[in-house]
Design goal:
This protein has six helices and 19 strands. It is α+β, with helices and mostly antiparallel strands. Among the domains are: 200-304 and 388-406, Type IV secretion system, VirB10/TraB/TrbI (Lipocalin), CATH 2.40.128; 310-379, no CATH class. Strands 3, 4, 6, 9, 10, 11, 12, 13, 18 and 19 form a ten-stranded antiparallel β-sheet that branches. Strands 5-17-14 form a three-stranded antiparallel β-sheet, with no helix packed on it. Strands 1-2 form a two-stranded antiparallel ribbon.
């Protein structure tokens, strides 16, 4: 049977054309490949599933172990916390007992002091019929001096002074106690002396940020050195002292004076005074300080724009001089000159007397106008213009003792 099957297959195979044979071979090969690939994919999936199951089992085991460890750690931590709380509770109870003992001792002392005061200020009353009435025994004997003590008011005047004002008396066992007004006065004087004491703070060389509240036109010629322009600044951050220490001077005002410098086109500012006041308005600091101001570029002085208004004035003076020269030229043509050993004599020509007068007037007027413009040009000195609301750095160059004054 097998041989017959093989023969029939061979006959059929031989009956196929070569192209059909090629197609059959290709289809068989593709089928084998597809089958093998599907087998590989299925085997990989099974391996992955088994690996995932193993990893899940391992993670569950580790999680169970980790949970046990965490529980144990929490248990020991809570034990420690409970022990610490017990110890602190015991210490607090001991402190409470000590405080109670101190309180009892103080109460005993206060009772003893009160009893001693009662005994010191109480006078035994004699029995009726012996040594006068009870009222006479209560009243103290009169003092043979000009300043006697008044029992009704309960005030004891000082020696050498008039009787003091009446004060509410303290009565123990029906006897007026001497007033403690003198001691109260002394205490008040001490308090006033403490208040009047001037508190001072030392401010070493330091620096701080500030805002320029007012701009300035700093004169940049030697003529303006005697009249520097004042400027107002406000401190916007605490002062930085040596060793990273800070002083709270935020909100204080600083007055400075500035002059211009044409070489650097900057306004050099020098500090004049520092003024501060507390929030309640009871104390103030107003102190002279020494220092300078640094711009945001780290250089001393504030950058500014040089403004010079002399150009137009000088141009007008030049025009007036030109007119004066023309008048002088026309004036020379209207005169005749005679030379002699004694000097030159200028006489106006008869035909040109009017032109000579006009030329002389023009020349004199032009000269006066030129002098006026030259004086105006000398007054309009160049300035360095600095605008307000700039952030600058204020540097205290010399330590100063700031005294706090009461208002």
């Amino acid at each position: 049977m097998v041989k017959n099957a093989k023969e029939t297959l061979k006959k059929k195979w031989d009956s196929f054309s070569p192209e059909a044979k090629k197609k059959i071979v290709v289809l068989v090969a593709l089928g084998v490949l597809i089958f093998s690939i599907t087998g590989l994919i299925l085997s990989k999936k099974e391996n992955n599933q088994s690996n995932q199951v193993e990893t899940v089992r391992k993670s569950e085991q580790t999680e169970s172990v980790d949970v046990d460890l965490l529980r144990k750690a929490q248990y020991y931590e809570t034990k420690k916390m409970i022990e610490e709380l017990r110890k602190s509770n015991e210490e607090l109870q001991k402190e409470i007992k000590n405080l109670k003992k101190q309180k009892e001792e103080l109460e005993k002392k206060m009772v003893e002091i009160r009893e001693s005061e009662k005994t010191s200020f109480s006078i035994p009353l004699p029995p009726p019929g012996e040594g006068g009435t009870s009222e006479e025994a209560i009243l103290p004997p009169p003092v043979p001096t000009s300043s006697t003590c008044s029992i009704e008011s309960g005030v004891m005047p000082e020696a050498g002074k008039e009787s003091a004002e009446p004060v509410q008396e303290k009565v123990l066992s029906g006897i007026g106690i001497v007033s403690e007004k003198v001691e109260m006065k002394k205490e008040k004087q001490k308090e006033k002396g403490k208040k009047n004491k001037k508190i001072s703070y030392y401010l070493p060389p330091s620096f701080m940020q500030a805002t320029l509240l007012s701009g300035l036109d700093a004169p940049a010629v030697s003529k303006g050195r005697g009249n520097p322009v004042p400027v107002l600044l406000r401190i916007k951050a605490p002062a930085v002292l040596p060793n990273e220490v800070k002083a709270n001077l935020k909100g204080c005002f600083i007055i400075a004076e500035g002059l211009g410098n044409l070489a650097t086109e900057r306004a050099d500012l020098r500090l004049v005074s520092l003024s501060c006041i507390d929030k309640r308005g009871r104390a103030v600091i107003d102190q002279k300080v020494k220092g300078f101001i640094v711009d945001t570029d780290g250089k001393i002085g504030l950058r500014g724009r040089v403004v010079s208004k002399m150009g137009s004035v000088l141009a007008r003076a030049l025009l007036a001089g030109f007119v004066s020269g023309i008048g002088q030229a026309f004036g020379y043509r209207s005169y005749t000159y005679t030379y002699s050993p004694e000097g030159t004599l200028a006489l106006p020509k008869t035909n040109e007397a009017l032109s000579a007068g006009i030329a002389g007037g023009v020349r004199q007027a032009a000269n006066e106008l030129m002098r006026f413009y030259m004086e105006l040009a000398r007054q309009t000195i160049p300035v360095v213009e600095v605008l307000p609301t700039r952030t600058v750095t204020v540097v205290i160059s010399e330590g100063v003792e700031l005294k706090l004054k009461n208002i």
